Amino acid sequence: MNRLPIYIFRFIILVLLQIFIFSQIQFSNLINPYFYVLFVLLLPFDMPRSAMLLMAFFLGLTIDLFSNTLGMHAAACTWMAFTRPAVLKWISPREDYEADTLPTVHYYGLRWFVGYTLVMVFLHHFALFFIEMFRWSDFFATLARVFLSTLFTSFLIVVSQFFFFRK
């Protein structure tokens, strides 16, 4: 409960950054950074699944309201939050996750964080871009867009760890 103001502040800042900066960046319709997913990535390990799903849904819905995308971001964020526990279990360190730590590069190292970020951002982007296309005829073009956007978004997220988040 004492972390609630931090999460509200992070939610607002990431939504504003996405709306005013990152939504304006687009490289030949292949690279679209969705930096706001950092909010879901940094949720605590011990957060109840229902709370995490609700927070992810409202994050995506907020982005949908400002970008006029009719629930696509809400669906992709909810999917990302739904798969997060399985991904965390799959990539967990040998000694498991420590109590009172967050999934950041400072707690678990660069290698772990890059892997975690790449998998989670890929899951989000895969859902988002295929919901957006809603047809299989452009499968390979959409898949290229997923990979390139995942790499760019993940790069931005990893770099942000060194500038804005401390242990």
Number of domains: 1
Per the CATH scheme, the topology name is Arp2/3 complex 21 kDa subunit ARPC3
Average pLDDT: 90
CATH architecture: Orthogonal Bundle
Strand content: under 5%
Low-confidence stretches: none
Outline: globular
CATH class: Mainly Alpha
Q: Largest sheet at a glance?
A: none
What value does the Rg take, in angstroms? 15 Å
What structural class do the secondary elements suggest? Answer: mainly alpha
**Number of DSSP strand runs:** 0
State the share of residues found in helices, binned by percent: 55-70%
N- and C-termini, Cα separation: 19 Å
SSE series: HHHHHH
Helical segment count: 6
List the helices and strands and how they pair.
Elements (H helix, E strand, L loop, with lengths): L3 H17 L17 H4 L7 H19 L4 H19 L14 H29 L5 H26 L3
Helix pairs in contact: 1-3, 3-4, 4-5, 5-6
List keywords for this structure.
mainly alpha; Arp2/3 complex 21 kDa subunit ARPC3; globular
Explain how this protein is built.
The chain contains 6 helices and no strands. With 167 residues, the protein is an all-alpha fold. The protein has a single domain (4-164), classed as Arp2/3 complex 21 kDa subunit ARPC3, CATH 1.10.1760. Helix 1 packs parallel to helix 3, helix 3 packs antiparallel against helix 4 (72-90) and helix 4 (72-90) packs across helix 5 (105-133). The longest helix is centred in the last third of the chain and has 29 residues, at 105-133.
What is the structure about, briefly put?
By secondary structure, the protein is an all-alpha fold. It is built from six helices and no strands.
